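ingest -> validate -> predict -> emit
validate: passed (alphabet ok, no gaps, 292 aa)
predict: started
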Amino acid sequence: MSEHNELKKAVLLGLFDGVHIGHQAALKELNRCGAAKKLIYTFISNEVDTKGERKLLLTDREKRQMLLSNGADDVVFADFKSVRNMECRDFCRSVFKDELNADIILCGEDFRFGKGASGDSDVLKKECSKLGQRVIIVPTVMHGNTAVSTTRIRELILNGKIKEANSLLGYSYFISGEVVHGKAFGRQMGIRTINIAFDPSKLIPKFGVYSTDVMINGRRFKGITNVGTKPTVSKSNTISIETHILDFEGDLYNDTASIYFKDYYREERKFSSAEELKLTICQDIQRRKDEA
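emit:
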C-alpha cells in the first residue's frame, strides 16, 4: 500500500443482491486497492427496474450489514430514478466526480450503466480516465463452466437446490423475522415450533422441509423448517415458515430469529392423517440430529 493511495477514495459499483462469491471477489479487490476510504455505490432495491417481479436474496438492511462486514467503510444507496436517464458521460461526472469525489472506481466486467444500460466497463474506463480516475475491472467468477450470478442462485433456491445455491453465495441462504403466534398445530402434536413474520420482498425457497440452523439472540441451534402452506392441517394458501428447534425450550415470541437453510429434505405434501405427518416429522428431526 502506497502513501499516495492512503489519501484516496475508492468506490465499488453494483447491485450486490446476495453479496455472493462473485461480489465477494470484487470486495477483496476493493480492500486490496489501498484507498483510505472504501465506498459501495448501489441502488435502493425496490426502485431498480427489472423484468417482472423480482424477489430479493437480501433486503437492503441485510445487504448493508454484509457489505460492511466485508470491509466497506460505507454504503451509498442511490435513487435509481434520479440517474436512470443520464448519459454515460454525465453519470460519471455527476456521480463519481461531483458527488463522490472518487479516485478509484471498481466494477465487475459485466457492469452496465447509463441511459438504457448503454455503457459497459470499457465505456466506464474511457469516461473516468478523462476525469483522472483509475478504473479496476474485476473478472467474472466462474463456478464450473457457469458464471456466478444472482439469477442463477435465485433459480437454484426456487428449485430446492439449496446446497448448490449456498456454494455460490458463500454462506447459507437465510430469512429473518420476528417470532409470532401461529395456529399451534405443532404444539397439538407434541412438536413445538416457531413461526416468523418475514419480509415479503425476500425470495421464498421451494415449498418443502429443510435442514436449517436457527440463530436467536446470538445462539445457534439445529432446526427443521417447513416452507409452504401446511396442507395437512390448514386449508389456507398463506405461506408460512415454521421451524422446530432441536433441544430448545423457552418462549421466543417477539424475538428475532434467522433461519439458515442448509439442505432440502423433501417436498411439502398433504398427509392422510396428523399421525402420519407427526411420524414423518419425527424422522426429519432424527435425520437432523444425525447431521453435523
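The longest strand covers residues 256-266.
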